[in-house]
Design goal:
The protein has about 260 residues and is mainly α. Helix content is about 60%, strand content about 5%. It has ten helices and three strands.
Length: about 260
């Protein structure tokens, strides 16, 4: 299922324009938002002062034509030229969405966070929270690399679920959060195996216990229990080894182990 995102137009234009992005999984109507642009202007020619309905429609047409980066700049210009209009608030979220479409997360995230801070009760808040979570989610790296974005995705997705339950955003965020947690558990397992292979059993045990305690519902728990048992045996802590070994026989702990040599 793909989400459709509706784009409103000023009163001069009739109806709505609709845009799509393959990665969005829930539908939303983009609402009004306010943003104050900061930073230096580029070397591109300044856009002359233009009536808000013309400038906004130009930005929307540019987005629909596929010129996403230019559309983001035009939406930003709507806010700059007409900061107190309804279409300025709409343009801020539209700009963030346009930056998201081209994976310009460093531009999209600050705009979304500013909107969330200034307009927590706005009807577009749910979408802003969700889009911010997607920005982090789509930057998740392989478990061999730093998981900063994965942790941010976990926090952002949890925010969506807690603040907007029983919405399409929360349902999709729940599915993504399960994957994020599994990914974080995979990172812990990767580090634990590294320590175990080098005989650093105490460090390995801490990692495996993190998986068991913090990520109980992930697919990595069975292997964590098995490797925890191995590490305790290697240290001669047989009581703990027996305890973790008995846990591996429970139905909840059944699963497939990732093969590695220790």
């Amino acid at each position: 299922m793909r989400l459709k995102i509706g784009f409103g137009r000023p009163s001069r234009a009739s109806g709505d324009r609709r845009g799509r992005k393959a990665r969005l999984l829930a539908g939303a109507v983009l609402p009004a938002v306010l943003v104050v642009l900061a930073g230096c202007k580029s070397q591109e020619p300044d856009i002359p002062d233009t009536p808000v309905e013309i400038l906004y429609n130009d930005a929307l047409d540019t987005l629909n034509a596929g010129n996403t980066k230019q559309a983001a700049k035009l939406f930003d210009e709507v806010e700059r030229q007409h900061p107190y209009s309804t279409w300025a608030t709409q343009s801020q979220l539209m700009s963030a969405y346009a930056y998201y479409l081209v994976d310009s997360y460093d531009d999209a995230i600050p705009a979304l966070e500013r909107f969330i801070d200034l307009h927590p009760g706005n009807r577009g808040a749910a979408y802003a929270y969700y889009l911010r979570a997607l920005c982090y989610y789509e930057q998740i790296a392989d478990v061999s690399r730093d998981q900063g974005n994965t942790e941010e995705a976990q926090r952002a997705l949890s925010d969506v679920i807690a603040r907007f339950p029983n919405t399409p955003y929360a349902r999709d965020a729940t599915l993504k959060l399960d994957l994020v947690r599994d990914h974080l558990a995979g990172k812990e397992m990767s580090v634990g195996r590294y320590y175990q292979q080098r005989g650093q059993y105490l460090a390995a045990i801490n990692r495996y216990k993190n998986v068991i305690d913090q990520y109980q519902t992930t697919t990595h728990v069975p292997e964590a229990l098995e490797r925890l048992t191995e590490s305790y045996v290697a240290l001669g802590v047989l009581d703990e080894a027996e305890r973790s070994a008995s846990a591996t026989t429970t139905p909840a702990a059944s699963g497939t182990r990732t093969p590695t040599t220790c």
